[in-house]
Amino acid sequence: MVFRLPENLDEKGVDAFLEAFLWEAIEAPGLMCGGGCGRVWNVFVVRNGRVSATEEDGRKVGEWLERRPVVSDIRIGLLVDAWHSA
After folding, report:
1. Could you tell me which residues come within 8 angstroms of residue 3 by beta carbon, excluding any fewer than 6 positions away?
2. Where are the domains of the chain?
């Protein structure tokens, strides 16, 4: 999953976005994410407990991002089995 925050968003705005994203879009529905963040985010989303995320999980996170006016260029990638793929 890749998305972008605006260059003119100050540090306080980035922190507020990060807190809301992690709690509302990731932790509350039982997900985890890892990857790089800053102005361009490139994250991998999985379910807690060594379970791959579902298409529904990806759709819900994408919808959450779309509702944020500071987020642009959202790209949700193909699902991969994070735990058992070769």
Report:
1. 40, 41, 65, 71, 72, 73, 74, 75
2. 2-75
